[in-house]
Automatic annotation (TrEMBL):
Cofactor entry: [4Fe-4S] cluster
Gene source species: Syntrophomonas wolfei subsp. wolfei (strain DSM 2245B / Goettingen)
Main location: other
UniProt superkingdom: Bacteria
Pfam families attached to this UniProt entry: Molybdop_Fe4S4
Alphabetic keyword roster: 4Fe-4S, Iron, Iron-sulfur, Metal-binding, Oxidoreductase
Protein name, as recorded: Formate dehydrogenase-O, major subunit, selenocysteine-containing
Length: 232
């Protein structure tokens, strides 16, 4: 303690779990003014309790083995940044999802998240209605589903099958409906190289770079009906 002043120190954790020590110097007068409003805490300190150490230990336990992962909300074009907190074992293997919060460092949402974004937790895990136990969301689709033309049933397929099927259908549709040239009013022809039987609708999960690549690919195929939910 410095003469005439009291130094407070506390351990602080940022959102990535990194610890730092902060200290604050207060005069005896400031100290008495503040503690006058917190007589109960003062009494506990008088009795020998180290409240600072207790608070720090509790904080440490809550973030033990927790890893934060920054991501982007998939739900709308705002593109809010979120941080996913997950518990991991000593080997770094995923144990369970703990929470999803708005990322305070993201310039778009600055820590906020609408109710839909905040509910991203439930994409993967939910709480059992009867027991309250945390469990994997049974409705979560984890494999591609395919419904054949005219069928009312969905079939699970692997990604290779699905991507081959999509490529086949794109090629078949494009080849059978490709417009190479178009006639103008004066009877002359111009090359247009387009297909009007394929449309592309981008999802809100696409960022600027992905939209750029997608639009390049669609233009190369001759797709003219091209839309996306514009992103950040
Ligand atoms: S948190 Fe809400 S506003 Fe932000 S991207 Fe997600 S859905 Fe959109």
């Amino acid at each position: 303690m410095v003469q005439g002043a009291i130094i407070f120190t506390a351990r602080k954790f940022n959102k990535w779990g990194k610890e730092s020590v902060v200290s604050m110097k207060v005069t005896r007068r400031q100290f008495l003014k503040v503690t006058g409003a917190t007589a109960a805490s003062f009494a506990l300190v008088d009795l020998g309790f180290d409240l600072q150490a207790t608070a720090s230990a509790a904080k440490e336990l809550r973030i033990k083995n927790v890893t934060p992962t920054p991501t982007v909300c998939p739900y709308c074009a705002s593109g809010c940044g979120l941080v996913i907190y997950a518990e991991r074992d000593a080997n770094g293997n995923f144990v369970k999802l703990l929470s999803v919060h708005g990322d305070p460092d993201n310039p778009i949402n600055q820590g906020g998240a609408c109710s839909k974004g905040a509910a991203m937790f439930n994409l993967r895990e939910i709480y059992d209605e009867r027991t309250g136990e945390q469990m994997i969301n049974p409705k979560r689709v984890q494999k591609p589903l395919y419904r054949a033309p005219g069928s009312d049933k969905w079939e699970e397929k692997d990604w290779d099958w699905m991507l081959d099927r999509i490529a086949e259908k794109i090629k078949e549709t494009r080849d059978s409906n490709f417009i190479h040239k178009e006639k103008l009013e004066d009877g002359s022809e111009i090359i247009v190289n387009r297909t009007e039987r394929i449309a592309s609708i981008g999802g809100s999960g696409l960022d600027n770079e992905e939209c750029y690549i997608l639009s390049k690919m669609m233009r190369a195929l001759g797709v003219v009906y091209l839309e996306t939910q514009a992103r950040i």
